[in-house]
Every structure is written in C-alpha cells, then in structure tokens.
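Need the bound structure for zinc ion, inputs here:
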Amino acid sequence: MRGKKVVGRSKPLFVRKNDTVLILSGEDRGKQGKVLKVFPSKRQIIIEGVNFIKRHTRPSQKNPKGGIVEKEGPINFSNVMVVCSKCGEPTRVGAKIITDGSRLRACKKCGEIIQAA
Ligand SMILES: [Zn+2]
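Answer from helper R.:
Posting the output first, comments after.
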C-alpha cells in the first residue's frame, strides 16, 4: 500500500456522457441524474439537475437583461457512482476487454456491459 495518493493518469475515467449517476456527497447526496458533460482533465462532471450554482451574467444576445442565472455546476468524479442501466443499482465499474481488444465498462454487480445511452 502506498497510502491514499492517487495518480491521476492511472485511474481510467469511468463516467461517460449520458450515464446516469448517483450523487454520493454534498447537498445533492442521494440524487440521480444524467451526465451532461465530462471534463476529464479536471476530473469533473456536470449532471443534469444537480449542484445548481448561481451565476451573475452580463447582458448578452441570448439573455439581454443579464442578471443571475442558475446553472448546474461541476462536481468531482469521486463523488458519484454510475448507475447500471441493467440492474438499476449504483455500482463500481470494472473494465472488460473484449476479443477485438477494446475496453468496455462492466457493472460489477451484474456483469453487464455498461454503454452510455
Ligand atoms: Zn448491473
């Protein structure tokens, strides 16, 4: 064991866009939502309906008045668990190598391949 230090690169990112994830911490703990955006370099994701933050915006064409806009804010990968589309359980995701060499994600509970919707 080498303590808690995690080397960023060695850990594959298991969350993909359009996955359903369960929030494990913070104000939205226990909520589930769809992944809208993934920022691999920051190890952050944006989840639909989760972690709303208020943003002050300047007037723009889209929003001529400007003002305060509520928007989903990014949260860290480590605060979510992928929900398996097959068994419906939040699960750890394992890697499965198939015959052509590609790596797929698999549910550690039911063994099903997890595909992003
Ligand atoms: Zn499953």
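Comments: Residues 84, 86-87, 89, 91, 107, 109-110, 112 surround zinc ion (CB under 6 Å). The radius of gyration is 17 Å.
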